[in-house]
Design brief:
With 222 residues, the protein is an alpha+beta fold. It folds into 2 domains: 107 residues, no CATH class; 108 residues, no CATH class. It has 9 helices and 12 strands. The two termini are 22 Å apart.
Length: 222
C-alpha cells in the first residue's frame, strides 16, 4: 500500500470522486481509462474500488458485438465496455492498496511519492549524524529503485530507524564478521569510502544476524 500524503496528486484525485458527472456519455464511454465503485463500511467511511476499463476500442470501431437470443443473432449497435470482478486499486482513508502496480503508475507520479517516503523514513538517520556525507547517502537510495523499494518494505515490516548504529562496538563487530566493504570511524560511516552501498542500508536497519545455536550468519529477507 501507499500513504496518500506522499502522493502529490492524491488530494485532488480523491476530491474528483463523484464530481463532473456525465449524462450523455455514449460517445465518450470508450475513452474512459478507469471506473470506480464507491461503497461505505459500517462506520460510513468511503471505500473506492478502482479498476482499469476495457473499452474495446478496436472492436467498437471496426468490428461488431452481438447477442444470441434464441435462434437469432442480434447485433449490438451501442458501444460496449468491459467490466469484471477484479480490482486494481482500493482507496480507503489516506491509504491506497495496490493490487495492480501498472495501474497506479498510470494515475500517479510514483517516483516522486517513493522519494518523499525515503526522505521521511530516513529522518532519524539524518538527525542522528551517524553517516558522513548523509545527503549523498540519501540521494543514492532515492536514485536506485531497488534500494528505494527495499527501504520502504523495511519500514512497512516494522523496522525502526530510530537511534541507528547506537552500539559502536557491535557495529564494528558486524562489519568485521560479515566482511563488509564499509568504512566506519569514530561512530560514523564514511559513505564516500564505503563501496558497498547496500551494506550501509543493512547496517542502519540492523539487518545482519547470527543464529543462537549454530552461529550461522545471515541477512534478513535473504
Amino acid at each position: 500500500y501507499l500513504e496518500g500524503k506522499f502522493i502529490k496528486e492524491f488530494s485532488d484525485f480523491r476530491k474528483s470522486f463523484g464530481t463532473n458527472l456525465l449524462t450523455n456519455y455514449k460517445d465518450k464511454i470508450t475513452d474512459f481509462d478507469f471506473y470506480i465503485l464507491s461503497i461505505k463500511d459500517s462506520s460510513k467511511k468511503d471505500i473506492h474500488i478502482i479498476r482499469r476499463m476495457n473499452g474495446y476500442k478496436k472492436v467498437n470501431e471496426s468490428g461488431m458485438f452481438a447477442i444470441i437470443n434464441g435462434n437469432e443473432l442480434n447485433q449490438i449497435d451501442d458501444k460496449v465496455i468491459g467490466i469484471d470482478n477484479i480490482a486494481d486499486l482500493i482507496v480507503y482513508d489516506n491509504l491506497i492498496f495496490i493490487l495492480n502496480y501498472n495501474s497506479i503508475k498510470n494515475l500517479f507520479n510514483l517516483r516522486g511519492s517513493f522519494q518523499r517516503q525515503v526522505t521521511n523514513i530516513l529522518k532519524p538517520v539524518k538527525n542522528s549524524n551517524v553517516i558522513d556525507n548523509y545527503e549523498k547517502f540519501e540521494r543514492n537510495i532515492r536514485s536506485n529503485d531497488r534500494l528505494t523499494n527495499r527501504l520502504i518494505s523495511m519500514k512497512r515490516k516494522g523496522i525502526s530507524f530510530d537511534d541507528p548504529l547506537s552500539n559502536q562496538n557491535d557495529v564494528q563487530k558486524t562489519i568485521n564478521d560479515f566482511d563488509l566493504n564499509v568504512s566506519y570511524e569514530n561512530g560514523k560511516i564514511i559513505f564516500d569510502e564505503s563501496p558497498d552501498k547496500e551494506a550501509v542500508l543493512n547496517l542502519i536497519s540492523d539487518y545482519y544476524y547470527r543464529t543462537t545455536q549454530h552461529g550461522r550468519k545471515g541477512i534478513v529477507d535473504e
